Amino acid sequence: MIFIEYRSIDTAEDKILRLEKLNSRLVNLLWVAVQISTEKKPATVNQIIVNGFSQLADIPRCSMFLLEPGVGLTEAAACGRIPGEVRWPCPAVTEMLSTALVNPNSRTATFCLTIPDFRCRQCPHRDCVIRVAVVCLFHSSTGETQGILCAFSTHCPDINRDTQMLLDLYSNQVGLTLENISLNQKLQEFAFVDPLTGLYNRRHFYERLQGELARSTRKNEKVSLLMIDVDDFKQYNDTFGHIAGDGVLRRLGAILKSTVRQMDVIVRYGGEEFTVILPETDLTGAVAAAEHIRYNIENAWFVNRKVTVSIGAASFPDQATDLNQLVEVSDRAMYAAKKAGKNQVATID
Question: Which residue has the higher pLDDT, 53 or 315?
Fold first, then answer.
């Protein structure tokens, strides 16, 4: 159902009041736009968006649904919900939202939809009196639907031309803002990820290790570090080529991911060196973890020949008092493993 505005002849005073009200709402729209464009946390952004939509539509009960590939519509934020109410969307609302996604007017206008009858056994909202939703779809700059803003009402609200214009402007702003947030998140991920192995890179390593050391100090816990170097890697590259060498590094990254705990942090430190941060782990536990890694790599299948690694282990605060010292001690331990014959784990007393 598209909103149709029936206009009466306005007096000069009516026009002034209308312009003043529109100006005030435009200021509010600008303020909300500034808030959502400067906030970094997605959950907070979503809540600001749905609150702003509620103010503009002048309807307390609103929800924001995001369209996720392979999943469908999921509620990201809401306001005006009755305490203890079950979460949306229920079957009736899902049907209504699906209708909104294919509505030919959805890309250009705010529109109103009648929610199908709630009185079905499967619907937890069968006693709900809501029958109408004001719907705004928001899209990316390429026109892809990102989600839906809905304001739920017991009757068809009075949405005039000014309100419809504001909601359309708002939905456009929401789409661009969410797209920018998504792009920034991807850029941050790229900045911290090694493109060859998909592991964290050296830049992320120092930030993450500093955070783990601070956390361990607060909680009086141990943190250990493994420094891992591929044995005779230069010889491997000279013999089989750098493309084959890249394949070895990717394979090592996969083995490390499948070997360590979920809480551990794996990093490609540089070249053929890897490092693993082990939270809540003392030196004894670090040596056991390093031996597990060494064994799995030694017994893994590689294309051209067997690959082995030498690993140095160090622990904070027993062997180091700060980040640089912990890296230095683990590095020295790794070189001690090399010197002792490679394909082994070593520590520094």
Answer: 315
3-state DSSP helix/strand/coil percent for the chain, to nearest 5? 45, 20, 35
Taking Cα atoms as reference points, which of 235, 228, 251, 221 lies closest to residue 315?
221
Domain borders along the chain are: 12-187, 202-347
Mean pLDDT throughout 202-227?
93
- Residue 209 CA to residue 279 CA, distance in Å, equals 9
Q: Which residue has the tokens 């590689």?
A: 302
CB 332 within 8 A of CB 305: no
206 has pLDDT over 60: yes
User: What local confidence, expressed as pLDDT, does residue 146 receive?
Assistant: 80
**Whole-prediction pTM:** 0.57
Hey, what are 339's tokens?
């010197």
Q: Of the candidates 264, 23, 327, which has an alpha carbon nearest to the alpha carbon of residue 162?
A: 23
Residue 35 CB coordination number (10 Å): 16
Is residue 177's pLDDT more than 50?
A: yes
Q: What is the pLDDT of residue 116?
A: 53
- 171 versus 82: which is more confidently predicted? 171
Q: Which amino acid is at 134?
A: V
CATH 1.10.510.10, domain 202-347, yes or no: no
Tell me whether the CATH fold assigned to 12-187 matches the one assigned to 202-347.
Answer: no
For tokens 């002034």, name the residue: 16
Starting at the edge strand found earlier in the chain, the sheet holding 273-279 runs 265-270, 273-279, 223-230, 309-316, 345-347
Sequence-ordered alpha helix ranges (H) in 112-264? 161-192, 202-219, 233-240, 242-259
Q: Which of 308, 1, 26 is nearest to 165 (CA)?
A: 26
pLDDT at 323 over 50: yes
- Both tokens of 143, joined, read 């026109």
| Range 12-187 has CATH code 3.30.450.40 | yes
- Burial (CB count within 10 angstroms: exposed 0-12, middle 13-18, buried 19+), residue 330: buried
Backbone angles phi, psi at 107, to 5 degrees: -85, -10
